[in-house]
Amino acid sequence: MIQIRTLSDLSIPRGARVFYRVDYNVPLDGSRITDATRIEETLPTLRFLRDAGARIVIASHLGRPKGERKPKYSLAPVREKLAELAKCNVAWSDDCTGDAVVAKTSSIREGDLLLLENLRFYPGEEKNDAGFAAELRKLADLYVNDAFGACHRAHASIEALPRLFDPDDTAGGLLLARELEFLQKVTQVSDRPFVALLGGAKIAGKIEPLEALVNLADTVLIGGGMANTFLAARGVEMGGSLVDKDSIDVANRIERGQHRANVLLPADLVCGDDLENPRVIETVSGEKGLAAGQKAFDIGPHTVSQFTNELANARTIFWNGPMGVFEKKAFAKGTMAMARAVAESNAISVVGGGESVEAVKASGFANKITHISTGGGASLEFISGVALPGVEVLRK
Fold first, then answer.
1. pLDDT in the model for residue 354
2. CA 320 to chain centre
3. Measured in whole angstroms, how far is the alpha carbon of residue 315 from the centre of its chain?
4. 108-135: average pLDDT
């Protein structure tokens, strides 16, 4: 069981400057934030730090500017949203390092917030550069990390920086602690049956968590494009469907290997001749396969029924990846049905980031899920048993 230093272990003198690393890598439509979940999830830690009288220096990345200052990746829109949600003024720094920034950290009052510009405007961030970390160290007396979504990255603000503080002056925030608590309910599962529901476009990028889950779970339900690849590995004709041909061998290895879980694939599929403007939509047997002009875009009604029954009997559920192209109304039924089934189960339910979060929110059942992870890649790596640099540096 991984145990990290948390806010309850941290002594915060009034007026102390806290470097608060968050993951405000939010989706943007121009300068409009389309989903503020990652900001909202940091509010409890911010309240804790403000009540303690800390001067809070907030740092995050946004997008992939690759060490260059690119206006479209500025955190300025985040500042406005954070001020709205936190109901307070948020001071702004156009830089992350330098004497002027150090002066700003000292000029803000107890309980105030200062947001730094995008850390990834600096090449040293992604290079885990010691010199860049040393410059960031000048900005604070204490270090708190709530950026679970970036904890699998050995970046300067995640890995090198906390090592420059006395360990007793570093901690995980309330969000990071919650992420680890619930993801460990999956990796250290005690409430069974444990059902894993996996989907998304491809197996590639999910091989390690997939192999971990077939040995952890009692049942693994596979839908989405991932299921197409497994069905193709069985010799089923998949027509024009998305098939991850490079992962056929992986699917065969999992299908034929010795593991704990019973792996279930779709009994039927909802197919169309085109995604954007389908003229023909029909349900096809998962055993008989698809004709040349058909493409699988969702799981069918028999599969929904079977998967729903499995989820209803579960005591622990981990879900990552939609069952189809849920963004299109014609092919959203499977994913929305799974969201309802997970929400209505009596299980501890953990949704592992990425498109799964979008799907759960679109379904209207998000408030009935036990835990929705803020980290897609990080949650999958954690499930795989990979040590996350941002977590390891905070271990007790």
1. 74
2. 9
3. 22
4. 98
* pLDDT tens sequence across 342-369: 999 999 999 987 788 888 888 999 999 9
Residue owning tokens 């779970």: 217
Cα–Cα distances (Å) from 206 to 127, 137, 311, 352, in that order, read 25, 35, 21, 12
Q: List the one residue out of 40, 220, 15, 206 whose CA is nearest residue 107.
A: 15
Distances (CA, A) of 233 to 228, 246, 265: 9, 11, 12
Report whether 268 contacts 303 (CB < 8 A).
yes
Identify residue 205 by its one-letter amino acid code. Answer: G
Structural tokens at position 36: 């503020």
The amino acid at residue 218 is D
CB 352 within 8 A of CB 379: yes
210: nearest Cα among 221, 46, 135, 174: 221
Q: Which residues are catalytic?
A: 38, 202, 354, 377
pLDDT of 78 over the 90 cut: yes
Secondary structure of the chain in HEC code, one letter for each residue: CCCECEHHHCCCCCCCEEEEECCCCCCEECCEECCCHHHHCCHHHHHHHHHCCCEEEEECCCCCCCCCCCHHHCCHHHHHHHHHHHCCCEEEECCCCCHHHHHHHHHCCCCCEEEECCHHHCHHHHCCCHHHHHHHHCCCCEEEECCHHHCCCCCHHHHHCHHHCCHHHEEECHHHHHHHHHHHHHHCCCCCCEEEEECCCCCCCCHHHHHHHHHHCCEEEECHHHHHHHHHHCCCCECCCCCCHHHHHHHHHHHHCCCCCEEECCCEEEEECCCCCCCCEEEEECCCCECCCCEEEEECHHHHHHHHHHHHCCCEEEEECCCCCCCCHHHCHHHHHHHHHHHHCCCEEEECCCHHHHHHHHHCCHHHCCEECCCHHHHHHHHHCCCCHHHHCCEC
- 206 CB-side CA count, 13 A: 26
- Residues 340 and 27: their CA atoms lie apart, in Å, by 25
Strand, coil or helix: 226: helix
With CA atoms as reference, report the closest residue to 174 among 27, 16, 56, 5. 5
**233-257 per-residue burial string, b: 16 or more CB within 10 A, e: under 16:** beebebbbbbbbeebeebbeebeee
* Of the candidate ranges 205-209, 244-248, 335-339, 389-393, the one whose mean pLDDT is the lowest: 205-209
